[in-house]
Amino acid sequence: MGDAVMGQNAPATGDVLKRISRRLGMKSVSQSFEIMKNLAETRNDGKIIDKFSGMRIFIVPPKFMSHIIYAFIELLGERLGTRIVYEAHIETGKNMVRIGKRAFGLEGIEAFEFYFWLLSSCGWWKIIDFSFDTERLNGYVRMVPLYPAILPQNAKRTIAFHQDAAGEIAGAAEESFNVPFIVKETRCTASGDEFCEFVIRRKNE
Amino acid sequence: MSEKGLDKKLLERIKSLKMEKNGEIMLQGFAGTFGVKDTNSIRDLLLYVADNFGFKGAGPILSRAGYMFARELLNEFKEKGADLIRKFLEFLTLNGFGIFEENVDETGGEIVLKNSIFTENFQNIDECIDHFVVGMLTALLERAFNRRYIVLETECSAKGDPYCKFSVKLAQ
User: Considering only Cβ atoms within 10 Å of each terminal Cβ, which end of chain A, N or C, has fewer?
Assistant: First the structure.
């Protein structure tokens, strides 16, 4: 069984964030953020370009995403709102993995790990645990969001709020392994859990 | 905000971001953390929602999100009236949202946004698509002057206009 593991429950040799950082010539995620800063190109037209990915970027309090998700749930209802948010982010996850493929020639589990490394570098999530079976193509990731859930008064207490991340992870997995995935948020800080847990599995299982 | 020297001001803003050891990104002078987001993900979201509801259908959702987001973010600002408008739009400009220029007072006016993050990667579509900005500006004007306003996007670079323009009118 080919496991990839990171985080506090992982063996020292399997700390993926550190390993990926080293592969990219960096000691840590915070150092990678410093490098990202140094690679930013600013222009008089108001644009900030990340030369690493070639994409235009902007800086925003993470609640930017909280309010977008909240508005979808509030106006479309919990079921449809969260589904739209999930599906709308699949392509984003794919695009993030493509950066790793293009910049570093990463494939498979390394490309998938790169997605989580990028996520941590940009101030959206703190990753605490990751386990993935590269033969069965299933696993989980546990992360603490830096954007809190905002819930409508009538929302279910057990809501899985972070469907943007769930959709992104599904897209990132698909782009990494070339098969479709389903990702379910099985624990969520919105429901009182200490972290969010995303269970990742191949779609046709 | 003037475009002259803006590149240096944007660079100063980027350099002033610090990532703490726990992975949180901080910006001097502001409480709470910050994230770095790319405009491709905004495009993906807009396209998916537009595929299902049309660009017009996406309007109420995204303008509501922008309104609520700005209402909370404005708590970080101590200014009032025209000073608040100037300071908040400068904050957005320096964070890479595009260049805001305003000509508004308590009775209304116009706000221009050049190179909006929401229209990046779009061209020649039939609708104005800066719904999130409309929501943010509505919240800003309400907070600045303590009155109700109607903000409409009248021109949009996604339609091929040279910039995005928003008309501001007092609500009756």
Answer: N
> Longest Cα pair distance anywhere in chain A, in angstroms?
52
Element (H, E) at A110: helix A108-121
Distance CA B97, CA A201 (A): 36
Neighbours of B81 (CB within 10 A): 13
Range of the domain at A122: 3-7+13-24+61-202
CB contact (8 A) between residue B44 and residue A88 = yes
The structural domain count of chain B equals 1
In a domain, B7, yes or no: no
Structure tokens at A83: 């589904």
Q: Buried b / exposed e across B140-150, counting CB within 10 Å, b at 16+?
A: bbbbbbeeebe
Interval A110-155: pLDDT, tens: 899 889 988 888 899 988 888 999 999 999 999 999 998 888 776 6
Nearest chain B Cα to A126, which residue?
B23
Chain B CB within 8 Å of residue A64 CB: yes
What is the ipTM, given to two decimal places?
Answer: 0.95
For chain B, say whether A8 makes contact (Cβ under 8 Å): no
For residue A91, which residues of chain B lie inside 8 Å, CB to CB? 44, 48
The neighbouring-strand residues paired with A79 are none
CATH number at residue B162: 3.30.1380.20
What domain count does chain A have? 1
